[in-house]
Amino acid sequence: MNVIVTDEGFAPDDWTDGFVTLDDAANDVVALDVSSDTDPDELYERLGRAELVRVDFPSFADGRGFTIARTLRLKGYTGRLRAKGHVLADQYAMARRSGFDEVEIDHALANRQPEDQWLARADWKANNYQTRLRG
Fold first, then answer.
1. Which of 29, 37, 38, 69 is such that its CA lies 20 to 30 A from the CA of 58?
2. Rounded to two decimals, what is the model's pTM?
């Protein structure tokens, strides 16, 4: 089982309802698993009543997932958004600012980047360059 990262640190995954790909989604889908190349506008149109959307990050250098999260939030999606995969501790604040509620990482990454590295970025509202420029 993977590790879930939130502003409070590491936690086990509490989601038990499974995930469905966008291609297999029907009207009663509860949680969607989407790739980083998913069109965010199309995704929003097909969300239905999804309570959770998990966006894959195949590489830490692939920032398209941030665009998906931001677009969904701007369009009004209020459910849970989870980034999954190759998100680094240094990217946690960006993930939160773009709209993600949590990040799912594997145990290997959790061992390389322990909880304290993620918690150092948990004050994501204060740690951005716009705030520093205003101060």
1. 29
2. 0.89
